[in-house]
Amino acid sequence: MMLKTETSKLFMVAMLFLLAGCGTNPVTHKRELQLVSESEEISIGQKNYVPARQQQGGDYIIDPELTSYVQSVGNKLAAVADRRLPYEFVVLNNSVPNAWAMPGGKTALNRGLLYELNSEAELAAVLSHEIVHAAARHGAQSMETGMLLQGAVMATGLAAQDNRYADLIVGGAQLSTQLISKKYSRDDESEADLYGMRYMKRAGYDPRAAVTLQETFVRLSKDHNSSFIEGLFASHPPSEERVTANKATLAELGEGGIWGKEIYAQKVGRLKATRAAYKAYDEGVQVLAKGETGKAGLLAKQATAAEPREARFQELLGDIAMKQSRNEEALDYYRRAIDMQPDYFRPYVQTGIVLNSLGRPAEAEPYLKRSNELLPTATSYYVLGQIAEGRGDLNTAMVQYQVAAGSESDDGKSAMARYQRLEIASNPAKFLRASAQADNMGYIYAVVYNPTSVTVANVYVRVVHFNEETRQPDNQSDPLLAAAKLSSGQRAQLLLPGVRAYKQADLELFRVIVERAELAGRR
Ligand SMILES: [Zn+2]
User: Fold this and answer.
1) Cα torsion for 326, 329, 330, 335, to the nearest 10°?
2) Could you tell me the distance, in angstroms and rounded to a whole number, from the CA of residue 46 to the centre of ligand 1?
3) What is the distance in A from the centroid of ligand 1 to the CA of 333?
4) DSSP letters of 93-140?
5) 456-466 and 443-449: which strand pairing?
6) Ligand 1 center to residue 168 CA distance, Å?
7) How far is the CA of 257 from the centre of ligand 1 (A)?
8) What is the pLDDT of residues 453-495, one digit of tens each?
9) Model's pTM, two decimal places?
């Protein structure tokens, strides 16, 4: 619902923009016409910052000193940027080397990228580049030209990034996926490199770090380094041209400035020391998806031994226990994960699923609702729909299923099937087909056909007769039981006593209307 409103509004904006004609927008120049106003741009970024971080693994919270360090470097660069925005910087708990900025200046850097950098100046090169994408409205412009907001299924212009949860997201939060997986154009990349290096220089960093970093990226892309390709390179493709252009910018700005190799090494020391634990965790997630619970268990134990405070490791132990139907144990692990990091959606979803499967729907409900506040998913809405249906609140159930069905995931499809089932029950006449048919003796039958995927029961029809001259109804039957049970694809016929049709025109005076029907046997 939310997405639709937002989409149509921005679509109108996009149309106006096309009519008005567009121009390029260097950071230092004011654009002639901005259709997404600055306040809208900031509010879009603010609204989508939480769901974007959630779907990327959540914030990396166990090393707050590291986060403050990244923030201090980001703030130094933001202070010298050409455009004042409410910039914000977080480190995400994700092993894929990646970084992104939303319209309005909300920026994130993955833990996985910090392993790969070697100095504060390189970190500054990444952050200043992202700051320019936000400052120059590279994301906001896509909204204006209608490149985004075509629905989550739209693939053009989206980078193929690793995102485990993207297809589960429902409603307005689907926009966040698009905002962080936008593939920037070559022009956007040149502009971000050029101004990013200027900001580095202004903040006292050696802009040469942007050249060496780009050289490293080109080398890694030639080596087909897969984690970079699904991460940073998907949205910011590296190239020899960028290296050449950055060298020219460097000649203009002049070498020299802070590198900060030692401070960087010190600040990421703890992170690098636990890298193996996260590698074990990532492998554990992968092997569990293949059903190898024993192997996943060993990897998860290895990870928790090295970093006992990591909520994601407890969550993995919970997932393994859940897969092995050790439900109470799974609940314990999820509870621990929630205690360690209360603002991450997934252990709430999992707790809700387990509690509901244990026949404790009332306890499950608040967990599922909390998860939807953090990241609305088809899974949570689907289970909430089942809980509502279970207590006989069919209207609520239909609403929840409908929201869940906004996702292309398996849970979204299952929710759609449940929704249709309830809709059929609430208005069977809309779905069953009924007509009057005659055999070659002229006997007339009320025929009902069930084109739906579900079995219906107690199908009652009413037969109405129309006057040959006035074409108005002149007689009708009481409700007649046409079928006690009618399976999917099945047909039932009921002889109408005392009437005959000897020609087609006679038959056309009869109408058969489905009066009511029920779902056969609740699942
Ligand atoms: Zn870029």
Assistant:
1) 170
2) 20
3) 39
4) S--S--EEE-TTSEEEEEHHHHHH--SHHHHHHHHHHHHHHHHTTHHH
5) unpaired
6) 27
7) 23
8) 788 899 999 999 999 999 999 999 999 999 999 999 999 999 9
9) 0.81
